[in-house]
Every structure is written in C-alpha cells, then in structure tokens.
Amino acid sequence: MLNMTFLTNSWLSSFNQPGLCITMATLLHYFLLAAFTWMCLESVHFYLALVKVFNVYVPKYILKCCIAGWGIPAIVITLVLIINKDFYGNGSHSESNPYSNFCWIQDNAVFYISVVAYFFLIFLTNTAMFITVLHQIHSVKSRTQKRSRVWQQ
Fold this sequence. Notes:
transmembrane, AGRG4 protein, 2 strands, G protein-coupled receptor activity, elongated, mainly alpha, 4 helices, two-stranded antiparallel sheet, transmembrane helix, GPCR_2_secretin-like
C-alpha cells in the first residue's frame, strides 16, 4: 500500500482538491510509519526466536503484533490530524514543472518529529536487537567450541 499511495500521489495531487491531497498525504504517512513499525516488530520477533528461545509464550501473539503494527502508526497520524489537518498538503517543488506537486507533510517540525524521530527510534531498537542476537550467537558458538575441546582432550 505504501508503494501504491506513493505512485498515485503525484497524479492525484494534480487534481488540486485539498481534501484528496490531505487524504493521500495521510495515507502515505500512515503506510510509511506502518512499514517502519513492522520492521521493528520483525526485529523483536527475531530476538524472541534466537535469544529467548525457550519458555517464551505470548498469548495471542499475532493479534498483539497486528495491533501494534497497525495501531501505533494510526495513533501518530491521529495526533497529527487532531493538532492541525493542514500539516498535510500539496507541496510544489518547482514552479516551472506542474507535475512536481506531491501531497505530503508541509511543516518541517512535524516531519522531523513524526517521521525522522520515529524512524530513528526504530533504527535504535533494531540495532540493539541485532547486537543482542549477534552476541547470543557468538556466545553459543564459543560454548560449543569449548565443549568440543573438552571432549577432544
């Protein structure tokens, strides 16, 4: 859906309908945040599968992942819309090219808080999960090598 909204965004912005543009910018923002959120959930799943291998049972795990994956971005979008729906709009990058219009976030502060900071938080989470998983794999490998040396002796 992120790809579809991205590809149709410029074409739909050419109709110069503010409501349509706000809808497209909102959908684009939502699906972008949803993609980031699902990426974070994948790293959490990776952590649970490789580090917390045994005795990990989360009741209704898939339901909770779906609520987080689709709900957290919805909360961010709802907050932006509640504060001011005019944060979304049609931004022209070039006056000489009428096809350069694109419906997106118009306020820089909102962009940096709701996209860049959101991505940075998820990037830090993914990096921490990755380092933890690498450490776990390395420690398992080290323990296996020590055991094999003891058996060889």
